[in-house]
Amino acid sequence: MELVVKGVFSRKVTKIMEQLCGASFLKLTVSALCAGLEMPVKSFNRRRLEEAFPFVLVDAMFFKSREHERVVSQAALIVSDIRADGYREVLGLQNGDTESFATWDETFRWLKGRGLQGTMFVISDAHRGLREAIRKNFQGVTRQRCQVHLLHNILGSCSARHREAVARDAKLVLHASEFPEARRRLEEFRNQYEKFAPKSVACLEEGFEDAMAVMALPEKYRKRMRSTNMQERINQEVHCRERVIRIFPNDAFTERWIGARRIEQHEAWLDRRYLDMGEFWEWVKFEGSPKEEAPTCGQAL
Question: Residues 131, 105, 71, CA angle at the centre, nearest 5°?
Answer without folding.
Answer: 95
